[in-house]
Amino acid sequence: MEGRRIDLQDLLFGLFLMVVAAFTTAATWSLRVGTAANMGPGYMPRAIAVLVLAFGLFFVVRGLVAPFKGITPLQPRAVLFILLAVAAFALLVTTAGLMIASLVTIVIAGFASRETRPLETVLFGGAMAVGAVLLFVQALKLPVPVWPW
Amino acid sequence: MLRSFCLLAMAALAGATLQPSPAEAQQSFSRAVRIVVPYAPGGTSDILARLIAPKLQEEIGQAVVVENKPGGSGNIGADAVAKAAKDGHSLLLLDVGTLALAPSLFPDLTFDPQKDLAPVGMVMFAPYVLAVNPSVPAKTTGELVSYAKANPGKLAVANSGIGGMNHVTPVRIAKGLGIEWKNVPYRGGAAASRAVVSGESQVIFNGVTATMPFVKNKQLVGLAVSGPARLKAAPDLPTFAEAKLPAGDAGTWQGLMVTAGSPPELVARLDTALRKILAMPDIATKIEDLGGTVKADGPAAFRTWFAENVKMLGEVVRENGIKGE
Amino acid sequence: MDLFTNLALGLATAVEPINLLYCLIGVVIGTAIGVLPGIGPIPTVALLLPFTFGLEATSAFIMLAGIFYGAQYGGSTTAILVNVPGETSAVITCLDGHKMAQNGRAGPALAIAAISSFYAGTIATVVICLLSVPLSVLALKFTAVEYFSLLVLGLLAAVILAHGSVMKALAMVLLGLLLGLIGIDVSSGAARMTFGVAELGDGIDFVPVAMGMFGLGEIMANLERPPVRQVVSQKVRDLIPSLADLRAAFPAMTRGTLIGSILGVLPGGGAALPPFTAYAVEKKVSKNKAMFGHGAIEGVAAPEAANNAGAQTSFIPLLTLGIPANALMALMIGALMMHGIQPGPQIMTEQPQLVWGVIASMWVGNLMLLVINLPLVGIWVSMLKIPYRLLFPAIALLCCIGTYGIANSVFNIWLMLGCAVIGYFFIKVGAEPAPLLLGLVLGPQLEENFRRAMMLSDGDFTVFVQRPISATLLGVAALLILVLLSPTVFRKRKEALAE
């Protein structure tokens, strides 16, 4: 790949840092900065944001002039189902209870891999749900409903 | 398929209408009662709640569980109780002085402590001891005041965090006496104590149990104690009033609250149960071990106390521009 | 000699059958909750507190202490096996411990973690006996000025531990500092970057971030790279570390123990500094630097030793000054008060049996942990035989429950989800999350101490070089920057990476 430039890793990381710096500055705009001797709550966020911006610029420039380096291709399946599983748990745990939330989370997470066998996952999810309730609610007294009712 | 669904839906509807509405006053506790402690485990409120929970369980005949909901200076847990079902099954045990400060400190508060929460009863009052690092040339409160007047801005008062009684007290005293000192915030009372023992800051207002051991060990010099009377443990320390210090009511006030609008019968039962529990000698001993005294005031006195403090603390906060950032 | 009378009294107390029993209960509970991510020692101790009211104070305290250091043992197990750090201290163990497991050396990794912890626990017990008093004096010498300098040094150490680009590690530390700023500012009470979310008022908790970036991030990355995880599920025959392993690990353990013992005493340093610092030092002095981050046994031994030594010496300020070094010690003070014991500077003279009994019980408890944990290694490793298609949903579920459990907050689960997305992005762009976590943990303290030091000195920056301890620490930090940025080192690092 001689001749091709752009280190995608550096470039993306640099852009990310610049976005974070801009966002931080915007979010802390109304806070008092103060002086070095008597700092307000806005002093440190602003100072760090400037540094982050500098790093961001550094990586963007380095990424543009460096020899080509790609990033490994995204596999949306894994990412999507893991995130969906976590989201399902967040939505269900206090409403439908730990038992159902655990089962649903395991089953959805199972879709993230192509090797998953549906029946096995459902059975395993059921066992994990019972185990989680026994361990966390019965033994460790985690204050969370077990069932929706 | 559709038919069975319709049947189910009808059954559900019927079930819903058959259930008594909360307004129709349940006469007794129908399920587990929770005491929400809006701080991490291990603090005074948490210990009190865990002391009271098993006794309350015996009194009301239902399981009583303690639930820690820390965060947001106690406001997250308080909000959870304020917004809970108005059925008397959600209680809140917390530092009510801090709660009284919340409306003036946090303009975006998501609940109104006076409207959304109702008092069950005060539980405990723990006075503050005023102590200084031995490097401060003052053996009495009078000497401390004249030293502070002669050296404005030199003394640093350690407090256990912005927006607590412990932070407002030195502000009130400075204003009352016309002195000027730095208010240095720390993360919690223990960090503040350490700072004054090491001499990083010089003055502290803190609980009896946290402070007196250092005074006995001559690592701190005790000057005065808040509250109505001298301490049994340290009878030679004058009260704030005797030492001519303002803010004599300063200290930690712990109280039990319930969701506002809960059935009055149940609140009355909780009040009776709480008074009975606080009259038990073993509870009184444990509360003394925590550096306080039992305050079994009941809802009416609590309500008055709370309203007065919201007003008074609000004025302190406004006049001194605390949280003017 | 006084020391021996004290130790004899302590040992006699610790080996009383009733105390042995409670010590055993404590370390078993501790190990169990340490293995479970999210359920830390603090809620467990709080939960058990009421049950200890009926016990004698010494037994109660021995049990509660056992939970604390037992949890440090257990935490490393989860970190090594599935790359989920349940505690700050376990983040570092993830780096090389999990790599060892991926290389099929989970057994030796777990065994070395247990042996290092026992070794450190033994030495730390001696340190507590001999040096409590001078060390507590040192702890009081640390004011805001010294803390600031120590934290600067600690954050720079984070850069060493990254095995990728120095610049990326620095940028990650800064991102961590920014995350740490979220919440209500301790010095002014102003809410920063909370966007009206009350849950953010106390700042971002470490656990959701760590579980999102390490636990869930690792799962997503693993699912993308089939060959790597086949190694994880590989049957492990060698459970016992070889003689060569032990020889490599021993000096690392010793250095880790020393570092942990000193840093553990300083209140506020928290559980993060000792293992991070020990790892950084080890990476600098080790002969096979190239192995670090790829399964170096020293990279497990040193932080585990430092972690356990620090956990034990963090009792020193409590036992000698009555000042808690961390949130858990504050809880212990509550426990003492409930037993009618006034914690404070005179506790050592007034309650010698309690103090020395607890100290001696730590050594006894560490021995128990070693005996319990070494045979367990086989069982833990056999867990890796569970097919990954079942293991990863289970890990995801444990992350969810654990994250919810730290503050009973659904918000934290969403936070973990967000961190998983960002963590996935970091994996894609080759940025390591460990320095970010250190920044997140130390950032708030850095700012707090800096501003406090400035406030107390009326804005005089020279205080940082006027005080000897602070000046020394900053000197070391400056030296470190010079070494890091000198071109020769850059070249060396590149060579090392190329290998």
Automatic annotation (TrEMBL), chain A:
Pfam families in the cross-refs: TctB (PF07331)
InterPro entries linked: DUF1468
Keyword Iron assigned: no
Domain of life: Bacteria
Record-annotated membrane-spanning stretches: 12-31, 43-66, 78-111, 123-144
UniProt keyword annotations, A-Z: Membrane, Transmembrane, Transmembrane helix
Annotated DUF1468 domain residues: 12-145
Keyword set includes DNA repair: no
Protein name (Swiss-Prot/TrEMBL): Tripartite tricarboxylate transporter TctB family protein
TrEMBL record, chain B:
Pfam families: TctC
Protein name (Swiss-Prot/TrEMBL): Tripartite tricarboxylate transporter substrate-binding protein
Family named by the database record: Belongs to the UPF0065 (bug) family.
Residue runs in coiled coils: none
Signal peptide start-end: 1-25
Sorted UniProt keywords: Signal
Keyword tRNA processing among record annotations: no
Organism: Rhodoplanes tepidamans
Mitochondrion as UniProt keyword: no
Superkingdom: Bacteria
Automatic annotation (TrEMBL), chain C:
DUF112 domain: residues covered: 20-438
Pfam families, per database record: TctA
Keywords from the UniProt entry: Membrane, Transmembrane, Transmembrane helix
Transmembrane segments: 20-39, 45-69, 109-133, 139-162, 169-191, 315-333, 354-380, 413-431, 464-485
UniProt-listed PANTHER family: TRICARBOXYLIC TRANSPORT PROTEIN
Protein name: Tripartite tricarboxylate transporter permease
Organism: Rhodoplanes tepidamans (Rhodoplanes cryptolactis)
High-level lineage: Bacteria, Pseudomonadati, Pseudomonadota, Alphaproteobacteria, Hyphomicrobiales
